[in-house]
């Protein structure tokens, strides 16, 4: 706000005399010129404002005033504000320059001119625009699935910023309405993630901040894979589950919990687990149970380790015209007449 200098009591008669000679009678002086409107000047916060005023001749007496009082009387500066100076690009100009404009500078300014004929005034209304700035936004939040969630985003600016919310997903859904509060009723696991608050006005680029919403839910088995194995070989069973917080896994054979020992190895990472048998024997074949649990619940899946049966390979001499004897020898099923004919041919040397 442009400040005003308080004159010394001893100088008060002299000050009043100068003002009476300089200004039209009475303040405010807006009523002196009924036909002249008020000009609006819009300036962004932090920029420099130039309020134009031009006199008719060099003998005119000029002053700048605002709602707080006198800023300049002639070339005498009454304001203590170092940001305020006169702008005189030529002898008849008497413009007012305000640097680093702030919101408290907004308001009406009057250039009062006392000519040889009549007093005139020129009024300017300074409008200060402020870029949008988010002043308060919800912290990251963790809730259980099915809960109601309210996110808050408040912003300052002139003109008043428009606030919009968007869920940062591949679809980038933008929520209806322009509200400081975003309410999500019965939140689901698909609605977890980051939410973006954007505050925008026409002064500058929008201010954007994000809130992360974590939705807790109990485990769900997403994949369980049985396997077949050959005796003496290595084999694995795998189990995957979705949950927040990430689930803990346990493996069971019948009702007995399995640990990593005696040729069995359990490896669990976030969301998946595997049970590996390093050397399969007959006792390893059968049913297994994978259990996934967190603080919201548990679930399980049954898996089977099958025995791999090798296919039977026929004897290379065995064909459709052969017969296997009792002792395992191969005999050819040849008709008797063909054998007799062959024997007669051999005897007669045919």
Automatic annotation (TrEMBL):
SMART domains: IG, IGc2. Gene3D superfamilies: Immunoglobulins (2.60.40.10). Residues 1-28 form the signal peptide. Keywords: Signal. The keyword Signal applies. This is Limbic system-associated membrane protein isoform X2. The gene is LSAMP. The keyword DNA-binding does not apply. It comes from Odocoileus virginianus. Residues 24-122, 132-214, 219-310 form the Ig-like domain. It comes from the Eukaryota.
